[in-house]
Design brief:
flavoprotein; about 400 residues; binds flavin mononucleotide; 19 strands; DNA/pantothenate-metab_flavo_C; lyase
Length: about 400
């Protein structure tokens, strides 16, 4: 999931946030895209074209009738060349022009001529944004099939708080990536569990495990990128929530996780159980901190079995595609085969968690896919996002 080899036209219009677009252009290039910038005359009042020309290593297009341009129809060439058009920042003025099909400068003429998906990133004074005329124009653009981001709320250049700020670069890059990604899971409801559960012993202690939640978050991020409505059930509130999720539900214990999954199971098309659920929990919870006694050398902890959430989902399964994860430190494949059959899952993702550069807590993973029909496939060591992409792409294919 990247912008590698994608051709992106960035149309810069005349708002105070123009300087932030330099950072956005750098991120797009870093993600692998080729970027061509065009600016309105107003935009060049804020930042000179030299900044963008230097970042992109391409001359910036500004003048519809430039006589010194070798290409007399540069606006049409840009329109046809680009895989994606981003208007950032989009002024109230350019929103009005686009909503009405005006084409009176390089930027608006190229935008009217392009058939590429269009991502509009408005930024302006709050009252300009909330003005009924602007809102009417935004509505028209959405109706016309353009993607219009909501400006962020925060401290505005005017010196007060309000809605109108240029959104975070990462959010814009995520939206751009989504618009360039085939929507293989469009409107599918994907439920993902992530992180390790914790079972409290007393108000300060718990039994837990080393699962970081990164694999589940990668699955949630990629599923959303592929157009799914993602419900993420997580034990890790400290992790940044991926863009475009439908809902995030935070839980701690296995019982809470089970309750959360059961509540949404009926509406799910795909369920990915990436969380590491504790097999056992303390028989008793001590409401006050357990004290050690004088001269005490041992401590007996009585545990009782937690419900087998995955097996229960396997039994209740109707049309859901159920994915389990098997984290093993030894005999990976034979243990995974047993789990695959016992839990009635459609796909089991087996990972070796005995090494520190993959699996639990690492950014990378190496897994073996075990399908219900008996076929297996090894996915070599790579990032968790790439693993998630490979898994979800294969599920989308078998679901067709
Ligand atoms: C200092 C200054 C800051 C401005 N900031 C914004 C802004 O953030 N958003 C906006 O929509 N217009 C802003 N404007 C108004 C636009 O520059 C003006 O509407 C202009 O005609 C837009 O032209 P363009 O859409 O062709 O780029 C600002 C104007 C000035 C003088």
């Amino acid at each position: 999931m990247s912008l590698a080899n994608q051709k992106i036209a960035v149309y810069v219009t005349g708002g105070i946030a123009v300087y932030k677009v330099a950072g956005l252009v750098r991120q797009l290039i870093k993600a692998g895209a080729t970027v061509q910038v065009a600016m309105t005359q107003s935009a060049t009042e804020f930042v000179t074209p030299l900044t963008f020309a230097t970042l992109t290593k391409r001359p910036v297009l500004t003048d519809l009738f430039a006589v010194d341009q070798p290409d007399q129809v540069a606006h049409i060439h840009l329109a046809d060349w680009s895989d994606l058009a981003i208007v950032a920042p989009a002024t109230a003025n350019v929103l009005a022009k686009l909503a009405n099909g005006l084409a009176d400068d390089f930027v608006t003429t190229a935008l009217l001529a392009t058939t590429a998906p269009k991502l509009i990133v408005p930024a302006m004074n709050e009252h300009m944004w909330l003005n009924p005329a602007t809102q009417r124009n935004v509505q028209q653009l959405v109706t016309d099939g353009l993607t219009v981001m909501q400006p962020a709320t925060g401290f505005l250049a005017e010196g007060y708080n309000g809605q109108g700020r240029f959104p975070e670069e990462a959010q814009i890059v995520a939206q751009a990536t989504r618009l360039l990604t085939p929507q293989l899971l469009k409107d599918q409801v994907v439920v993902v569990t992530a992180g390790g559960t914790t079972e409290p012993l007393d108000p300060v202690r718990f039994i837990g495990n080393r699962s970081s939640g990164k694999m589940g978050y990668a699955v949630a991020q990629v599923a959303a990128m592929l157009g799914a409505k993602v419900i993420l059930i997580s034990t890790r509130p400290e992790l940044a929530v991926p863009a475009q999720l439908e809902r995030v539900i935070y839980v701690q214990t296995a019982a809470e996780l089970q309750g959360a999954v059961q509540a949404v199971y009926d509406q799910a098309n795909i369920v990915v159980m990436a969380a590491a659920v504790a097999d056992f929990k303390p028989v008793q919870y001590a409401p006050q901190k357990i004290k050690k006694q004088v001269n005490q050398t041992d401590f007996q902890l009585n545990l009782t079995k937690n419900p087998d959430i995955l097996a229960a989902l396997g039994q209740q399964k109707t049309t859901q595609f159920l994915v389990g994860f098997a984290a093993e430190t030894n005999d990976l494949l034979s243990n995974a085969q047993v789990k695959l059959a016992a839990k009635q899952v459609d796909l089991l993702v087996a990972n070796d968690v005995s090494q520190t550069d993959r699996g639990f807590n690492a950014d990378d993973n190496e897994v073996t896919l075990l399908w219900a029909d008996g076929t297996t496939e090894k996915l070599p060591l790579t990032t968790k996002v790439t693993i998630a992409t490979q898994i979800l792409t294969r599920i989308a294919q078998v679901q067709k």
